[in-house]
Amino acid sequence: MSAVIDTRKLRKVYRVGAEDVVALDGVSVRVRSGESVAVMGPSGSGKSTFMNLIGCLDQPTSGAYFLEGQDVSHLHGDKLAEVRSRKIGFVFQGFNLLSRSSAAENVELPLTYSGVPHEERRERAASALKAVGLGHRMNHLPSELSGGQQQRVAIARALVNDPAVILADEPTGNLDSHSSEEIMRLFLRLNDERGMTIVIVTHEHDIANWTARIVTFLDGHVVDDRPSAQVAAARGSA
Fold first, then answer.
1. Which of 52, 108, 135, 234 is geometrically suited to a Cys-Cys bond with 57, CB 3.0 to 4.6 A?
2. Which CATH topology does 3-237 take?
3. pLDDT at residue 236 in the model
4. Domain segments of the chain: what residues?
5. Spatial CB neighbours of 31, under 8 Å, sequence gap ≥ 6
6. 3-class SS at 37?
7. Element (H or E) spanning 185, and its range?
8. Computed from CA positions of residues 127, 131, 132, 135, in that sequence, does the dihedral angle turn out positive or negative?
9. Can you say whether the dihedral through the CA atoms of 223, 10, 231, 133 is positive or negative?
10. What pTM does this model have?
11. What ranges make up the beta strands (E) of the chain?
């Protein structure tokens, strides 16, 4: 399969006071279409910087990043934002839902920014909410939903633009163990049934083991990249 994400010797250096801090140092990672990948590492390992770069939220100091074959390494401003809105679906630990908007209105947001007509927005939002098992909760406010349901709304919002990849940053960090398992089963189903490419940043090994592959960072380098030892068992119980 073709690579959705292809980083080549990515390097990111931040200026902190009088010092240069190397956050990433020559990172090359390929993620094929339809893969599920976990990115792990301790605090300061470079995993969050990597997430920001592949999510087109930041630019590398050097190296190249190809997203679906397009070199986006040197894009900035509106051009980078356009690529981000069309090709990346984000899921965050804190859900990031608008408290006074319904589930459907929250899911419609990316389509609103893209200028999609109202009727089409509502249809696509309804379809995305049905895909995550919340077709019956379209008109509920976030405060009327459980934490797990709020995260499902966030996943529906990430899906609604049919992105090339879903990037999930600690998506179960605010959830209890039962809700965490439900969310990971949902990611698994989206990966299996819809062929969604999913990259999850997590510090939890039990969450990482739901994916097919685990990439481990340390001190700005990839120190391990291997299939998940437990993915077969996880899929068998799904």
1. 52
2. Rossmann fold (3.40.50)
3. 52
4. 3-237
5. 3, 4, 5, 6, 37, 165, 197, 199
6. strand
7. helix 177-194
8. positive
9. positive
10. 0.91
11. 3-16, 19-32, 36-40, 62-67, 70-71, 88-92, 165-169, 198-201, 213-218, 221-227
**Ranges in the chain, pLDDT < 50:** 232, 234-235, 238
Q: SS3 of 233, please?
A: helix
CB 27 within 8 A of CB 90: no
Q: What is the largest CA-CA distance in the chain?
A: 55
Side chain identity at residue 163, one-letter code: P
**Could you tell me the two tokens for 73?**
């390494």
CB-based contact 88:169 (threshold 8 Å): no
Distinct helix (H) and strand (E) counts, the chain: 8, 10
- Contact residues for 195 (Cβ-Cβ < 8 A; gap 6+): 33, 34
Per the structure block, which two tokens stand in for 84?
A: 């981000």
Instruction: Give the CA distances from residue 19 to residues 16, 60, 62, in Å, rounded to whole numbers and listed in that order.
Output: 5, 18, 18
Task: Tell me the two tokens of residue 215.
Answer: 């990439």
pLDDT on residue 231: 57
Mean pLDDT of the chain: 92
Instruction: Name the helix (H) or strand (E) containing 127.
Output: helix 118-131
What distance lies between CA 171 and its chain's CA centroid?
Answer: 9
CA distance 207 to 196: 18
Q: How far is CA 174 from CA 55, 61, 96, 171, 183, in A?
A: 21, 32, 12, 8, 12
Strands 36-40 and 198-201, by their bridges, are: parallel
